[in-house]
Specification:
By secondary structure, the protein is α/β, with parallel strands linked by helices. The chain has helices at residues 44-50, 90-103, 107-123, 137-150, 174-189, 192-195, 211-224, 236-245, 252-258, 276-285, 293-298, 306-311, 330-347, 356-370, 411-421, 441-446; strands at residues 7-19, 22-34, 37-43, 64-68, 70-76, 126-132, 153-157, 159-160, 197-203, 227-232, 266-270, 288-291, 316-318, 388-392, 427-432, 435-439. The two termini are 14 Å apart. It binds guanine and fe (iii) ion (FE).
């Protein structure tokens, strides 16, 4: 891993999505990075002329596309080893496949897996992640330490649950311990590493949390200005359970509302089975939604009504939701987002499908907005922190030897190629705040 280079440039097909439905591109573009920030963006020839060639590195990476780093708004650190496991829906899947691996995620196992998890994120081009650890304080601490070393921008929290945690009976003190440990972690890690790390209070969902726990989490998050993350309305059986557990609530969202969990810094995972009142309540609270389409397909949870959530003005990002989703690759999550909306159009003919450029927006600037980090990351604007990925365009082509095939590509072509064919095999470099946190071995060998 290189140390922070104060000034360097990258040349390539620059593409970003500043708004839902809009793409910005410079086919022969260049980007100048100074002290971790984007100092200038322009056409290669202009930028090269303006900036003395001998004072600056211009590495030749070949035909590449440069995007803002991908943002994963919802995933689970301890679950990565259990991807693609099981055939059941959410609640039995959690019991049979997930709680057993989370229960083990501490000590040597966590120390071995956490650095590899963050390396995988960087390799896949994810520059910002919001994730859950296991219930143990140590698992979260190890996670933060691995995040810090990896350079990935990370929002993480200790999983909180005081009902039926990992299927075990609970000691009476579990509620106070959970709050105490979460507070300690928040004091240690929130806004650490110059703001690259943040803490999220993480009550799992209304099925495994008492109202007291949820209220306590909300109070702590307010006191420290920290994030909150939880799951909402993912699966029909879950909805039934919540209805029986929280009889006085108007609906699922009301359970969280009453406990103070709906804030401007709240990320709500899934949000598939919501009524109009719930959507309005989330919008009024300015909470954000993490749409996890690959997970929703894997677990058969349902097809998210993305148009309704967006129409309400709610900020939406995308989440891999590993191990509900089978991979960390956000290009695959974008693809799933498109395919979920396409599947809906079969039954709702007036619905407009999600376009590749819109999916890219959700995985970049949409995610940045959903995390309240929109002024720092999410686009290639000068002044922003340089969170970038470099994609090998030739690796995406069906006949990679044919270099001319790249010449006529439109920005929309490049985005679609990435969504349908990209992945870690094509990701050459990943930068966070101007620091290269991943470099593909083939590039390292070439230089
Ligand atoms: N709901 C509560 N916990 C989980 C989890 O770990 N994964 C998913 N997909 N949904 C959940
Ligand atoms: Fe999840």
């Amino acid at each position: 891993m290189q140390s922070v280079t104060s000034r360097f440039a990258l040349r390539g097909f620059l593409i970003d999505a500043p708004d839902f439905g809009s793409l910005r591109a410079r086919p022969n573009g260049a980007i100048l990075i100074e002290n971790g920030r984007i100092a200038a963006v322009g056409d290669y020839d202009d930028l090269r002329r303006l900036h003395q060639p001998n004072s600056i590195q211009w590495p030749d990476l070949g035909p590449v596309a440069i995007f803002p780093g991908l943002i994963d708004c919802h995933t689970h650190l301890p679950q990565y080893s259990a991807v693609a496991r099981g055939e059941s829906e959410l609640l039995p899947w959690l019991r049979q496949h997930i709680f057993p691996v989370e229960r083990e995620f501490t000590g040597p196992k966590a120390r071995e897996e956490a650095p590899r998890f963050f390396h995988e994120l960087a390799r896949n081009g994810t520059t910002t992640v919001m994730a859950y650890a296991a219930i143990y304080e140590e698992s979260c601490d190890i996670g933060f330490e691995a995040a810090r070393r990896s350079g990935v921008r990370t929002i993480l929290g200790k999983m909180m649950m005081d009902h039926g945690s990992y299927g075990q009976t609970q000691p009476k003190k579990i509620l106070s311990i959970s709050l105490l440990e979460s507070e300690r972690l928040c004091r240690k890690w929130h806004k650490a590493e110059n703001g690259l790390l943040d803490y999220a209070f993480s009550p799992r969902f209304a099925v495994t949390c008492s109202e007291k726990l949820m209220r306590g989490a909300a109070e702590l998050a307010a006191r420290f200005g920290a994030y909150i993350q939880t799951h909402l309305a993912e699966n029909r059986e879950e909805l039934e359970k919540v209805r029986h557990l929280h009889m006085t609530a108007r609906d699922y969202t009301d359970v969280y509302e009453k406990c103070g969990l709906l804030t401007q810094r709240t990320m709500l995972g899934h949000c598939i089975h919501l009524n109009p009142r719930e959507i309005a309540a989330i919008a009024a609270a300015q909470s954000s939604v993490a749409h996890c389409p690959s997970s929703n397909l894997f677990l058969g949870s349902g097809l998210m009504k993305l148009d309704q959530i967006l129409k309400a003005g709610i900020n939406v990002g995308l989440g891999s939701d590993v191990a509900g989703g089978p991979e960390l690759d956000m290009w695959q999550v974008m693809r799933a987002a498109i395919e979920v909306q396409k599947a809906r159009t079969a039954y709702e003919p007036n619905l407009r499908p999600l376009r590749p450029s819109e999916a890219l927006y959700l995985a970049t600037r949409g995610g940045a907005r959903a995390l309240g980090k929109n002024t720092a990351i999410g686009t290639l604007d000068p002044g922003k922190e340089a969170d970038l990925i470099v994609i090998d365009l030739q690796a995406l082509l069906p006949y990679p030897q044919n270099r001319n095939a790249i010449v006529g590509l439109t920005p929309e072509d490049v985005v679609a190629l990435c969504i349908y064919r990209s992945g870690p095999h094509a990701n050459l470099e990943t930068y966070v705040r101007g620091r290269r946190i991943y470099q593909a071995p083939k590039v390292a060998n070439r230089v």
